[in-house]
Specification:
Helix 3 packs parallel to helix 5 and helix 5 packs parallel to helix 6. The protein has a four-stranded parallel β-sheet. A four-stranded antiparallel β-sheet has the order 7-8-9-10, with no helix packed on it. A two-stranded antiparallel ribbon has the order 2-3. It contains six helices and ten strands. It has two domains: 150 residues, no CATH class; 62 residues, no CATH class. The protein is globular, with a radius of gyration of 19 Å. The longest helix has 18 residues. By secondary structure, it is of the alpha/beta class. Strand 9 and strand 10 form a beta hairpin. This is Elongator complex protein 6. It is found in: Cytoplasm; Nucleus. One of its GO terms (cellular component) is nucleus. Its main location: cytoplasm. Pathway: tRNA modification; 5-methoxycarbonylmethyl-2-thiouridine-tRNA biosynthesis.
Length: 217
């Protein structure tokens, strides 16, 4: 039978526990392929590389070539054994795309990378691509704005986590704006927007309707 899996490109830490889900166990079972950005960056500078590295662009003068990173995604989606069943509905997690901008990769190159990943994961294998991007807010960052706008046009579901306009609150940590785009619907019914407030707990996140918490009126 087809199997489910995820490919994670992470720029921060090794997989362990994420909101009650053991990523380490998923990795050991072959359900998660994980590329740790920081460790891989150290390897590419201080260890000899026989094969092209997914983060090869870090050593190149032209830092816009993300083809090795895309090829890593392609390879991760292939069954490890020719006799194994193909993956079913894979998920590509990218945490986060904004780091690529800070490393000198242009927004257009990042959008091209996402486009090819969507073609492979979404169209060919009927999966999903989930990417994190930071909003620079009031700061003027043209490249980040291009990336945000480009991803916004490609996305069917946008989750925007932000702080409360009223400031810090110990019982409500922020609000989540959800924009759900349905291209198949008529123009007037295509976009649906919802807003929830949330509180982050030890291994869980509580969501509730805006204004339902007595701490925020």
């Amino acid at each position: 039978m087809p199997r489910q899996m995820a490919v994670s490109l992470c720029t921060t830490f090794s997989p362990s526990i994420s909101k009650g889900v053991s990523l380490t166990t998923a990795r050991e079972c072959g359900q998660l392929v994980f590329l740790e950005g920081l460790k891989s960056a150290v390897d590419i500078f201080f260890r000899p590389q026989e094969d092209p590295h997914p983060l090869q662009f870090l050593r190149e003068a032209n830092s816009g070539n993300l083809q090795p990173l895309y090829e890593f995604v392609q390879e991760a989606l292939k069954p490890m054994d020719s006799g194994e069943a193909a993956w079913r509905c894979p998920v590509l997690l990218v945490d986060d795309l904004s780091v690529l901008l800070s490393l000198g990769v242009g927004a257009v190159a990042v959008l091209d990378f996402v486009h090819y990943c969507r073609a492979t994961v979404c169209r060919e294998q009927k999966g999903n691509v989930v990417a994190l991007v930071h909003d620079s807010g009031d700061a003027e960052d043209e490249e980040n704005d291009i990336l945000l706008n480009g991803l916004g046009h490609q996305s069917h579901l946008i989750l925007r986590a932000e702080g409360l306009a009223t400031g810090f609150c110990k019982d409500v940590h922020g609000q989540l704006r959800i924009l759900w785009r349905r291209p198949s619907q008529p123009t007037a019914q295509r976009d649906r927007s919802l807003t929830y407030q949330y509180k982050i707990q030890d291994k869980n996140v509580s969501f509730f309707a805006k204004g339902m918490s007595p701490a925020v009126l």
